[in-house]
Structure formats: structure tokens, C-alpha cells
Amino acid sequence: MTLNTYITDEQSDFQIGVAMKAIVRKAIFNTLVYEGFDRDVEVSVSFVDNDKIKELNKEYRGKNSVTDVLSFPQYDDFDDAFEEQVLPLGDIVVSLERAAEQGYNLFHSIYHEVAFLCVHSTLHLLGYDHEASKEDEKEMIQKQKDIMEIIGF
Length: 153
Fold this sequence. Notes:
Helices cover about 45% and strands about 20% of the residues. It is of the alpha/beta class.
């Protein structure tokens, strides 16, 4: 499996450096490996501020509030994408401002929080939905814990 990540920085409060980009790639890659996903994929990750993610959350989810991460899967069913040589898995949008706040409140680094949000969002890109049922929520929480442990958090 090859993972192509396209990372954009649309916020100005925090510096996105090599370490942050490496954490993003590590989180996404290990989530795909954990799930046994062996296709070549590309994922777009955008870092935004709270104002931008609130705007996107309202536009796409009808929720007029700040959130930490949004996931925009490219496919509902991967069988529809069988001809794609490199599968565009989807887009992840992270509010780095919110990630910093949550990391501070949970007593861990912004790197830990961004890794978690990328694991969480990648699972959404693969079709998991913790809001569908309590069982789905439990399954997704366990997967997140397992993957975070694998990547060292």
C-alpha cells in the first residue's frame, strides 16, 4: 500500500512543521494497516481555525458549532472505485485551534490530539460511524485505542 497525503495549512495560529506532517501520515497509514486496507490511496488533510471549521460544520452537517475534525469520504462503497489505481479516500479537515484546546484540557500534546483526530477521521473515511449505534461507537472507540497504542500514544 502506498499512501499519498496532501496537507494544507489554512490557519495562522500554529506552525505546521515536519513533525506534525509526520504524525498525520503515521496516524493515517497505521489506521489503514490496522484495518487491512491494502489499496494505494491518497488523503487530503487541511488544517483550519475554529471559524472555518464552524462554517464547514454548518454547511455540511447543519450544526452551527465548532468541532475538532470533519471527514469527507470520497466513496460510500469501495466497490464503486475498483478501477482507480490510486484511490482518493477523502478529505480530513482539522481545527488546529480546537486540537490545541482539547490537548491542553486532556493533558497531552497537540501532536497526540492531531494523531487521534486523524485516526478517528480515517476510520470515518473507511465507513465507520460512531453515531449510527452504541455498538458502532464501542467498536470505533476500541479501534482508536488500539491504533493510538500502535503509533505510540
